Amino acid sequence: MRFIVGAGVIIISFLIFSYKLPSSFVFNPDFARDLYDILKITQGKITLIGPKLTFGGIYSGPFYYYLFTPILYITNLNINALLYFNAFLFAAAIGYLFKKISAILSLRKSVLVSLVFVFLPFYLSASRNPSNAFSYLPFLMILLTYIFFTEIKTKKQLFFIGIGFGIIATFHLVNLLIVPFVTLFIFYLLKHKRIIVYFFIGLFAPFSYFILFEIKHNFIMLKNTFIDKSYLYWVNNKNIPGGLTGKKNIIDNIFFLSSQIKELILINPLLMILLGSAIVLIKKNMKKERILVICSLLSLLLLVLTLRYQFISHYLFSVTFFIFFVFIFVLIKSKLTLVLIPILLFEIIYFPKSYYQPTWRSVQTYEKAAQALIQNNIIKKEDSFNVIQITNPDLLSPNGFEYRFFLRKAGFIPNLEFEYKKSQVLYIFSEIPNFNINNLDSWEAKEFGKEKFIDNKIYSTDKITIYKISK
Fold this sequence. Notes:
By secondary structure, the protein is mainly alpha-helical. The chain has 2 domains: 2-356, no CATH class; 363-470, no CATH class. Helices cover 56% and strands 5% of the residues. It is built from 22 helices and 4 strands. It has helices at 2-18, 21-24, 29-42, 63-74, 79-101, 107-118, 121-127, 137-149, 155-171, 179-189, 196-204, 208-216, 220-227, 231-235, 250-265, 269-282, 287-306, 317-333, 340-349, 363-375, 401-409, 443-448; strands at residues 385-390, 425-430, 456-460, 465-470. A 4-stranded mixed sheet has the order 1-2-4-3. The longest helix is centred in the first third of the chain and has 23 residues, at 79-101. The mean pLDDT is 94.
């Protein structure tokens, strides 16, 4: 019976995560960039790094790319397959959670706990948006579930848990914010404290990509970040035009970030920590849970200290998930699982129906524009060409990876995004009708040569205008 119910939980989760997924998916520039890099891997272009992060010149690890590479390859470069695979990962993590908690709870209570995570707003959103900033969440859920509900006592366990957290950290370095507190909790659990070293060995192993890349490229990331001091652009919030910042005052930032986290999970994290603290203090035999509540508070404080300089919503995800998971764990261990009923009802009442609305930025729009060049013999494979896109609204993404993906998929390989000067042909894809390309004032346009814009040819699809400029 438990197996049947568990399978039902996975299926229902997947259906919720994947409902109207292709038609509602926003084909954003960051995903298009990642998709282009994954496409290159399927064509034999192996990489040691993943997407560039906003901190200095540091890049994330390649594991995110290689997670999706086989799916893109075996489905003949089908983008929708990546979307469904990402949703499946999130559903599978829910299934693993159900499996572990159903060993100590009734089936009804296990389903209740599972559904609370299914309808958790930012978990639901992340399940529908593959990204290095989101797609680590199912693995974080699996790791936390294993640590919280399994006795950890062997070197092998510690090594593989360490590898898991190392890989998650390479998805996005913001995940390092919870690592000290997970380490503290594991250290507390161990009878033989010395074997914690195996956790650290596993933790640092996935960062070998960083070492290999730096050795191969003369430590370019470290030099760019710390010697050339590009990290100051992050500290001064100058690397992202219009970027948000936290509050410089720590107390103000606690309340500011707590309000931002509340938008992700509908509950103020300070309230969860306060309630969790009250429960573990009142209830007996909850030493382990007390340590966890302290760890969740410390993770929030570290987040507050870190995000005084620059703030983007997904920076909150790992700490938010950790705090929420600890709170649920405390409720389970204190036999107060029924408290989750009003939380689930609250999630359902405020269910984000907008997630299922038709997208304003569909994959088909950009595929059709790229195909227009190919089918009308406007573009030649032997051309030395590059791409610029003009988005509406301005998404600060001039390199046009949305188009590069479909062009490269068809065998038309553009020059790199820093090779505009050597390119002989430039294709400008504009989402703004009747755009005057002479007003384009980007670095990319200047590198190619704006003086060449006078002589251009114009083509169009139903939504995109294409300008061809030749030297």
